[in-house]
Structures are given as C-alpha cells and as structure tokens.
Amino acid sequence: MSDAPLISVRGEAVLEAQPEIARLAVHVQSQEPDRRRALDRLTERNRAALDLIASYGDAVEKTETGGLTITPLVKYRRREGDIRAYQGTVLINVTVADFTVLGELVTRLADLERVRVDGPVWDLRRDSDVHRRAAEQAAQEAVARARRYAAALGARLTGLVELSDEGLGRDEGMPRPVALAAYAGAPGDAGEPEAIDLEPEVQIVRAAVEARFTATAPDLG
Predict the structure, then answer these.
(1) What global pTM score does this model have?
(2) CB-based burial label for 217 (10 Å; 0-12, 13-18, 19+)
(3) How many Å from the N-terminal Cα to the C-terminal Cα in the chain?
(4) Which InterPro entries match (predicted)?
(5) CA distance 170 to 191
(6) In degrees rounded to 5, what are phi and psi of residue 182?
(7) Which residues of 16-36 are buried (b: 16+ CB within 10 A; e: fewer)?
(8) Crossing angle for the helix pair 35-54 and 102-110, nearest 10 degrees?
(9) Mean pLDDT by 10 residues, the chain (221 residues)
C-alpha cells in the first residue's frame, strides 16, 4: 500500500439553462347516467383532444395516454345497485418542444368540453448537453480544489486514486413549476380563446463528485 499522502475533495457545479421541453397533463372527462353513454362521450372527447394536439405537428414532441378509468358514482346513502352516474377519465401526457405554440395549445385544450389541463412543467431532455457540462465542471472543480489544497501545503498532485459521482439532477431546493389548471364545461360560442402568455422557467442543474488524489510530501516547515 502506498504511503503517499492523500487529498480527498468534493467538486460541485451548478448551471442555469433554459428549458428544452414543457409537459402538460390533459384530463378528459365524461359523466353520464348510463355506463355506455359515459364511455361513448369519453371516446368522443378524447378523440377531439388528440386531434387538436396532433394539429400542432412537430411542435408536439410526444403524446401518450397515461390511463383510462370508468367509475360508478353511488348516491349518498349507498344501497345495492344505487348508482347515480358513471364518470370516465382519460389522462393524456403531452410533451411540447416549441414554446411559441404552448400558450395557444393550453388555452385551446382547456376550452374543450370537460377537459382540465395541468402544467406546464418545464424540463430538460434526459440527453441534454447541460447534464454533461455540469458533470465535467464538477470533476474539473474537484481537481482544482485538490491542487489548491496541495499548493497550500507546499505539495503537488501526483495521481488520482478514486473519482465517484454523487449524482446529477435538477436542484430540488428550487420551487417546482406552478401548475396552470383550467377546466371547461360546455363550449361557448365566443370563438377561439386568446392564447395565454407563458414564460419558461430557468432550470437549475447540479452535479457533484468526490475524488481522492495522491500528492508529494508536504512542506510542513
């Protein structure tokens, strides 16, 4: 085992970046006294929402159905077969890449009959270059910090023993994006709604590493 002195440090990096995508959760609902009618209405409204989303072409990066439920609603004093209505819900998860259409898409979706929109949640893509740059800067900071410690002792670094990644992700200490929720009942006859102005939220990305370096003997005189 080497007797060379060891210097252990932690390197950190914090980067700010503009979001690359925005996520919306679109809840399509129906409620009818008959189970089949509730399912039929849900199918119609789901198709209307999907058609509207699809009309934005490449501006929408991904559209996914998150789940479907048909739930019987019972009366206050429940008895066998005492069902007052059936409620259907479909969740559509939408990822938008072109923010210039986002405000219009949100308001048009919210203007559909019995539709609720939650979002936007701003985010970076998993393969975003920002994550790589944060990791590289954290490693570089670890080397620079170790060199400063070695220089303070009259020594110099001679090798790397270990480098461990503490993880990479968004700053959990920052407040999460505020959800914009909208709910529409029967459609009105006032024409298309005015697009809402949405300002992208800056993303905070943190990276941290721990590193151990060997060094020459310090000058403690």
Answers:
(1) 0.78
(2) exposed
(3) 26
(4) 26kDa_periplasmic_antigen, SIMPL/DUF541
(5) 40
(6) -140, 145
(7) ebebbbbbbbbbbbbbbeeee
(8) 160
(9) 85 96 97 92 96 97 93 74 87 97 96 94 95 95 97 95 76 43 48 88 95 93 73
Token reading at 149: 């410690």
Contacts of residue 185, defined as CB under 8 A and 6 or more positions apart, other chains included, come to 113, 114
β-pairing, 157-170 vs 203-215, is antiparallel
Return the pLDDT at 181. 43
Residue 152: closest CA among 215, 73, 67: 215
Tens digits of residue pLDDT in 66-90: 989 998 888 766 566 688 899 999 9
- Collapsing DSSP to helix, strand or coil, 203 comes out as strand
Contact criterion met (CB below 8 Å) for 89 and 32: no
The closest of 111, 77, 90 to 187, measured between CA atoms, is: 111
Classify residue 193 by burial, with Cβ atoms within 10 Å: 0-12, 13-18, 19+.
middle
Q: How long a stretch of residues is the chain?
A: 221
- Which residue's entry shows tokens 């198709």? 47
Question: Rounded distance, CA 1 to CA 165, Å?
Answer: 24
| Helix, strand, coil distribution of the chain in percent, nearest 5 | 25, 40, 30
Triad 213, 217, 221: Cα angle to 5°: 135
